[in-house]
Amino acid sequence: MEEFRMYPMVTFEGLRYRKERPKRVKMLTRDFIEDSLYNPSYGYFSKQVVIFTPGEPFDFSSMKDEPEFQKQLSRRYTAFEDKLDAETPNPTRQLWHTPTELFKPYYGEAIARHLVSNYKLTLYPYHDLIIYEMGAGNGTLMLNILDYIREAEPLVYTRTKFKVIEISSSLASLQLAQLHRSASARGHLERVEVINKSIFEWNTVIPSPCFFLALEVFDNFAHDAIRYDPITEEPLQGHCLIDNEGDFHEFYTRDVDPIAARFLRVRDAACSSHFNHPLRSSKLLRQIRSKLPLAHNLTVPEYIPTRLMQFFDILREYFPGHRLITSDFNSLPSAIAGVNAPVVQTRYKRRTVTVSTPYVHQGYFDILFPTPFPVIEDIYRALTGKLTRVLSHEDFLRRWAYVEETETRSGENPMVSWYQNASVMTTV
User: Fold this and answer.
1) pLDDT tens-digit profile of 1-34?
2) CA quadruple 33, 39, 42, 44: dihedral positive or negative?
3) What Rg, from alpha-carbon coordinates, does the chain have?
4) Distance between CA atoms of residues 29 and 121, nearest Å
5) Residue 97 to residues 46, 48, 49: CA-CA distances in angstroms?
6) For the whole prediction, is pTM greater than 0.90?
């Protein structure tokens, strides 16, 4: 405890321009997570991540069944990484995929149909179709959407503007040239603008109606760790102390900072249904447990999406006419202990390795959280005043995709059956 009192308190913003991982400091859990993932010099998304692209789209109609798709995907995955290793061997390369890449162009076309249908229903011809995408990755979704609109809705295409906001400023410099080259090659360059700014630094009001895409983004937003006194139900906030040797120590204090405290207040006021919580068991039962030998004096940690709440604040303040389309995981296997707890994993020699704590060597581990859609839907509604709809990933695709395009000869459909643990939330 003496070191905890002695070491200075730092934040992600204060560490942003550091070239080396800090020592002899303490910080909130959310700042440690954000620094681990997004620090420009040593963060996970700055140095480690490569997004898999399969090359040509898969020909699903020629495949016997879903296992054949998995075999073809495995072969392309291996060939993709073999090519990377031939250029620069890297046993710690972090390679991951998205539904946009696996099921291109069909997945992007489903998003495009949703956008165009809602645009024509309420905004056309009085407003342009303005689309913002946060974290564009390889730019595949943007290109698939623009290709579809140009082909299927040429009049709408002339009114379309696509703006990419790169949430990780360190990735923006790498993606900017690639996005521009790809857009130019397909004739979309005049439709595309790449904005090199974190969404959390946004300070310009966009009064025009727009659609805001945030696909597979929420899972890497930083969370706070909260534990509760099982008797008094008082919340305590998690901190990470990094000692002189660079080792990590977890601490909890009763001083809950204003951001986490606000999240707890908003959630309590906004949520209309029960949600998973460390204090859901009866108080009497908790009192009995507290008297048992070796009983813990605090509950298991709850990880609360404070950064996501701040993102909703940005949408309300600076994009008042937005309509949100977001997709993410509603549950994750192999998560660490706790409520709404993350999966913490890395990849070594092409194998995934999971660990049991978020306090790991910064930049080498992905820290991804499930999104509790019933909770965040109520919070989004309370903060923005907008109405929403949540669908399963499968239901959204059956509504907006031409699912026969990804159906195998056996009738199995990988695009529909994969990502069963994902949901889609849209503004209505």
Assistant:
1) 677 788 999 999 999 989 999 999 999 999 999 9
2) positive
3) 23
4) 44
5) 17, 14, 10
6) yes
